[in-house]
Design a protein that fits this description.
The protein is an alpha+beta fold and about 220 residues long. It has helices at about 5-20, 20-30, 40-55, 120-135, 140-145; strands spanning about 60, 75-85, 95, 100-120, 150-155, 160, 170-185, 195-200, 205-210. The chain folds into two domains: about 5-185, no CATH class; about 190-220, no CATH class. A hairpin with a 5-residue loop joins strand 8 and strand 9.
C-alpha cells in the first residue's frame, strides 16, 4: 500500500475538482460574507481568493525542498508507520484454502502534509481550508485508494527559520489513517525443515547419522 502516493493523488484530484466547481469553492469561504464580517471581507474578498486559486499553480510534492518555484505548494512526508495489533487478522491470513490465502497486515500510518507559502500568512490559511475541504470531499476516493478511518490534526503557522530571506510560512497537518498491506502467500519462499535421521546404538542411546533437507517423514 503506497500511502503517501495515494494521499498525494487525493489532494491533486481534489484541487482539480475544486477548480471545476466555483460554487463549492465559494461555500468554503462563505463565512467571510456573513453580516458580522462583511465590513472587513465580504464577496470582494472571496472573489480575491478565488482569483488567486484559479491563477496559481499549487504543486503537491513527495517530500519538499525549499525551492521558491514550488511555492505555494503542499508537501507529503511519511511521519510514522506501524502495524496495528488491534486490527490484525486471525493468523494474518485472508481467504479460503491454500490457493487463495493472502498475508495481510493492518497498519496505522501518519503522514505530515505541509502547507507552504511566501509573502503572507493569509495564503497559508486559504490553502489550509482548501485542504480540509478536499480531505472531506474526496473521502470516497481516499477509501478506494486504501486510506481508511482517517483523521487529522494541525498546528499553528511557523516561519521556516533557515529560509527567512524567502519569507516562507508553513502549517503542518498530521494525517493519520489505517491501511491494509497484502501479499500473496503463495509467492513466499518457505525454508525446508531440517530433519534428523536417528539410529539406535548398541548402548541403548540414539546416534545422529544424517541430516536431511527433506520436509517429508517418508524419506527416512
Amino acid at each position: 500500500m503506497l500511502s503517501e502516493v495515494a494521499l498525494q493523488r487525493v489532494i491533486q484530484v481534489g484541487l482539480k475538482n475544486l477548480r471545476n466547481n466555483p460554487e463549492a469553492f465559494k461555500e468554503i469561504f462563505d463565512q467571510y460574507n456573513c453580516p458580522e464580517m462583511q465590513a472587513s471581507y465580504g464577496i470582494p474578498y472571496i472573489e480575491k481568493i478565488y482569483s488567486w486559486f484559479n491563477n496559481t499553480k499549487i504543486p503537491v510534492l513527495q517530500a519538499w525542498s525549499f525551492d521558491t518555484d514550488k511555492i505555494p505548494g503542499f508537501s507529503i512526508h511519511l511521519a510514522d508507520e506501524s502495524e496495528d495489533e488491534s486490527k490484525a487478522s486471525v493468523g494474518d491470513y485472508f481467504g479460503m484454502g491454500q490457493e487463495s490465502d493472502i498475508l495481510t497486515g493492518a497498519v496505522t500510518v501518519s503522514i505530515d502534509i505541509g502547507i507552504h507559502a511566501d509573502k503572507t500568512k493569509d495564503t497559508v490559511l486559504w490553502m489550509y481550508y482548501i485542504l480540509l475541504y478536499i480531505l472531506y470531499r474526496e473521502k470516497p476516493l481516499a477509501r478506494k485508494l486504501g486510506l481508511q478511518l482517517y483523521t487529522y490534526r494541525a498546528n499553528d503557522y511557523n516561519k521556516e527559520s533557515k529560509y527567512m530571506a524567502d519569507n516562507v510560512w508553513s502549517r503542518w497537518v498530521r494525517f493519520r489513517c489505517t491501511v491494509q498491506h497484502y501479499i500473496d502467500s503463495g509467492e513466499l519462499y518457505i525454508e525446508p525443515i531440517l530433519e534428523l535421521d536417528v539410529d539406535a546404538d548398541t548402548s541403548g542411546g540414539n546416534q545422529i547419522t544424517n541430516i536431511s533437507d527433506s520436509v517429508s517423514p517418508d524419506n527416512n
